[in-house]
Amino acid sequence: MLKIEGVHTFYGNIEALRGIDMEVNEGEIVTLIGANGAGKTTLLMTCCGAPQASKGRILFEGQDISRMPTHEICHLGIQQSPEGRRIFPRMSVYENLQMGASTQDPKYFDQDLEMVFDLFPRLKERITQRAGTMSGGEQQMLAIGRALMGRPRLLLLDEPSLGIAPLVVKQIFETIKQINREKKVTVFLVEQNAFHALKLAHRGYVMVNGNITLSGTGAELLANPEVRAAYLEGGH
């Protein structure tokens, strides 16, 4: 579904991605783990066209999207829930979800809204509340819900566990599994919480300094001594 071939991305003179090769197959949950500053978010942003890759290609269902503007990429069926949530804090929950649906035919709005409320009942309870007054976990639910309102076939999730209480993190990851299994949405997950991410994922990649250094199934990477030492608290 998504194929990344030899992608380089720069911020000015700084090379953030150094020839990335990876793929996400339809129906999978694929996770990308790595330390802060490794280039994980840059890769997701490059998939969405901002910034654009300076070398290499990004293919979505065989179509080269490397030079497409972001709004056209969204119309193809790629939606992102960004790092730090970036909801519209002054808008209500309902208005945020309306924004997520803005690229879609209005005839789908009611059924998509019900789907989001089924996944995240808390959002239904908060439907008229200003999004900025909710807890971090509730805001993360809203960020994912807003992306789902765009009817994605490929959902890009950037650090969904960041700054959230452990109990809510577990709930968020269970919902990601449900989105993949029941809603048939392919997921590309960027996450620092390597244990939860690799347990959830069918396959995973490890990024270090803008390079992919390891890949394998989620179980293989969980068992890998290098991964355990670097990302799983020394293997404990």
Automatic annotation (TrEMBL):
Keywords recorded for this protein, A-Z: Amino-acid transport, ATP-binding, Nucleotide-binding, Transport
The record's annotation in PROSITE patterns points to: ABC_TRANSPORTER_1 (PS00211), ABC_TRANSPORTER_2 (PS50893)
Note the CDD domains from the entry: ABC_TM1139_LivF_branched
Q: Name one GO biological process term.
A: L-amino acid transport
MF terms (GO), sorted A to Z = ATP binding; ATP hydrolysis activity; branched-chain amino acid transmembrane transporter activity
Annotated Pfam families: ABC_tran
Q: Does the keyword Ligase apply?
A: no
Q: Which residues form the ABC transporter domain?
A: 2-234
Q: Does the keyword Thylakoid apply?
A: no
- SUPFAM superfamilies recorded: P-loop containing nucleoside triphosphate hydrolases
- According to its UniProt record, which protein family does this protein belong to? Belongs to the ABC transporter superfamily.
Q: What is this protein called?
A: ABC transporter ATP-binding protein
Q: Which organism does this record belong to?
A: Thalassospira alkalitolerans
